[in-house]
Sequence to fold (213 residues):
Amino acid sequence: MRGEHRGGDGVRPIRVLLADDEHLIRGALAALLALEEDLLVVAEAASGPEALAMARAHRPDVAVLDLQMPAPDGVSVAASLRSELPGCGTMIVTGHGRPGHLKRALSAGVRGFVPKTLSARHLAEIIRIVHSGRRYVDPELAADAISSGDSPLTVRETELLELAADGAPVSEIARRAGLAPGTVRNYLSSAVAKLSAENRHVAVRIARAQGWL
Fold:
């Protein structure tokens, strides 16, 4: 990472946070973005918790977040940053686009949604777009999202599946959700049936694969 500086015209550069659990990719992006006079990579992170900690410490203008990071994932980090650091624009970079991921990202306030296959120069341009308050969504990812069906799960079913994702027992899920264990079982059974899954653990995998969690 480079120290604080101003561009050749004296304008404060756009401060960028890079979060990706693949060190080689993150390092390469940081090196390439360092070539852009108006961009400054102020922090890097390898997981969701580290990304949040770095964002709080360095207060970037734009956070470039990998979708698939050790929990919380990029979309969850973006949702947290929207409330904690409303001045920080967020964008998702993904190598595993699924139908529901874009919809989740937009709901979390993400302004950019792009594949990992794009060039560093293109990424730099999108960082500038996001910093300006505009939105950029990769056309192919947008087309996939439009053509895909919505999640069959209700908001409550989705919430309880997320709570079940770490293998917690029904009693613990009920405590976290503030519901009776029997109610939790009913919601989880409904989610399992809708996804044609063998059990709630399989249901979690199916829902995640579709981008619904």
Summary: The mean pLDDT is 89. The longest helix spans residues 181-194.
